[in-house]
Design a protein that fits this description.
The chain is α/β, with parallel strands linked by helices. It has 16 helices and 14 strands. It is about 40% helix and about 15% strand. Strands 3-10-9-8-7-4-5-6 form an eight-stranded mixed beta sheet, sandwiched between helices. Strands 11-12-14-13 form a four-stranded antiparallel beta sheet. The protein has a two-stranded antiparallel ribbon with strand order 1-2.
Length: about 475
């Protein structure tokens, strides 16, 4: 970039700050003002120059990498990518393509779309062969035969969501101790969409939001793109550090706290009852709202405390979905909130895409009404319990320990060295991993990595991990 003070980015514009910053660099690269091989400012320096957060810069650089204009070189920084002549995909032998280890949230997800689940210990979902396609096909057949359809296939559907699904969800929430009428439930295109609606409806650029650290990398990226300031709250086996949370809230006056109380991603931890009570007291005293993401709730025992149950949906908005237990292809999620919040959230949904799919929502309702979804979830919990035992034994055999006893789908493994340094060697050996830095709001390096209990049961992975750690400890630097 030329010397001098850069033109300020436009806060409050329709394009997020990260997009503005990415386009600014992209234009200079296309105009050859930044030549191939040129090094861009460090994340911290770029944030200082443009008056934005480091998270905004990371999101902008990620967009440039996705566009093929930028490349990240480990421990060196970000560089303008060498331009290459276009080559047809058919002309490139598949065996010569080099995969890059994930260095950010987008790359992690992209890698997971391409990965073989059997060789993806860092996968964020259950593998396809753990799911129940017959359950889905049966529900769709009933709709296709005209039963229970009520003209769903030729109409937009209710903007609030399919009435039968919302009724079934009301009963599901009651089992968790959350009392929400169907009128307090809004269906969405997956839990991620529900969280996005909440961000766009209830937050403004410049607002501060408390987040778990480690936490869900995609949520960090979405909040950053919305111009929201992240306030990381350390998360351990005992739950969020409430002393740190209280200090941050007193200093920065956050609008909300986005958290996972049950089967936290990536650690697998669940909040205990005492911690939940104290957190809700702090929310009252310091006047912030809580968004409770329960995306993995079907994989957890129903008795685990939900913040929304203790709070009565007063300060807490509850979010969940079905992608983790049915299929990622069915983007059906929902949120439950106080009645006064629903109108604005429904308006945002209408402007976003009119309605969600009434056909898929009715199909999910049939799965719930028949009790088949409940039985399927119980089988998954039992199979995961067996998988955790096997994975724990494999990890112990290779000398690894856990930050806390694994639970649910994930475990938070301590490998003893910087886990990000292991990602590329393991990927070269055919194993997709999820190093801990991907789940850090500040991209802090560390020795932890997320392990998927369903996809980490091959002893060959644990031998490869042990070998990679041993090579790392022998290598200088």
């Amino acid at each position: 970039m030329p010397t001098g003070t850069p033109t300020p980015l436009l806060r409050g514009a329709s394009q997020p700050l990260a997009g503005q910053l990415a386009e600014r660099y992209a234009q200079r690269i296309r105009e050859r003002l930044l030549l191939p091989g040129a090094r861009l400012p460090s994340v911290r320096e770029c944030a200082r120059q443009h008056g934005v957060s480091p998270h905004t810069v990371v999101a902008a650089y990620d967009q440039l990498q996705a566009a093929g204009l930028l490349e990240a070189r480990r421990q060196r920084g970000f560089f303008v990518r060498e331009s290459r002549p276009a080559t047809s995909r058919s002309a490139r032998p598949a065996t010569t393509q080099t995969r890059q280890a994930p260095m950010d949230a987008t790359a992690l997800i992209r890698g997971m779309f391409e990965a073989d689940a059997a060789r993806s210990p860092g996968l964020g979902t259950l593998p396809a062969d753990w799911l129940d396609p017959a359950l889905l096909q049966s529900a769709l057949r009933r709709l296709g035969q005209g039963d229970n359809g009520d003209g769903l296939q030729v109409s937009y559907g209710d903007p609030s969501g399919d009435a039968r699904l919302r009724d079934a969800l009301s009963h599901r929430l009651a089992d968790l101790g959350i009392h929400a009428s169907p009128a307090q439930i809004l269906t969405t295109n997956g839990a991620t969409h529900a969280l996005d609606l909440l961000i766009r409806t209830q937050l403004q650029p410049g607002d501060a939001v408390l987040v778990d650290d480690p936490g869900w990398a995609i949520m960090f990226a979405r909040l950053t793109q919305a111009g929201v300031r992240l306030l990381p709250v350390p998360r351990s086996a005992q739950g969020p550090d409430l002393d740190v949370l209280a200090a941050l809230a007193a200093q920065h006056v956050p609008r909300a706290y986005l958290t996972v109380s049950v089967l936290h991603n990536p650690t697998g931890h669940s909040l205990n009852l005492a911690g939940a009570h104290k957190l809700l007291r702090l929310a009252d005293e310091l006047d912030f709202h809580i968004v409770e993401d329960d995306s993995y709730g079907f994989l957890a025992p129903e008795h685990l405390p939900r913040l929304a149950a203790l709070d009565g949906l007063r300060r807490v908005t509850y979010v969940s979905g079905f992608s983790k237990v049915l299929t990622p292809a069915w983007r059906v999620g929902y949120l439950a909130a106080a009645p006064e919040k629903l109108a604005a959230l429904t308006d945002t949904k209408l402007l976003d895409g009119l309605t969600s799919s009434p056909v898929l929502e009715r199909a999910v309702a049939l799965c719930m009404e028949q009790g088949r979804l409940r039985r399927h979830a119980q089988r998954l919990r039992e199979r995961l319990a067996q998988g955790r035992q096997r994975v724990a034994a494999l990890a112990a055999r290779q000398g690894f320990t856990w930050a806390a006893p694994p639970d649910g789908l994930f475990g938070w493994l301590d490998v003893g060295v910087d886990s990000e340094r292991l990602a590329q060697p393991l990927l070269d050996a055919g194993w997709l991993t999820a190093p801990g830095a991907l789940f850090s709001a500040t991209r802090a390096p560390g020795s932890l990595m997320r392990i998927n209990m369903a996809t980490s049961q091959d002893p060959a992975f644990w031998r490869a991990l042990r070998a990679a750690v041993d090579r790392s400890t022998r290598s200088p630097g």
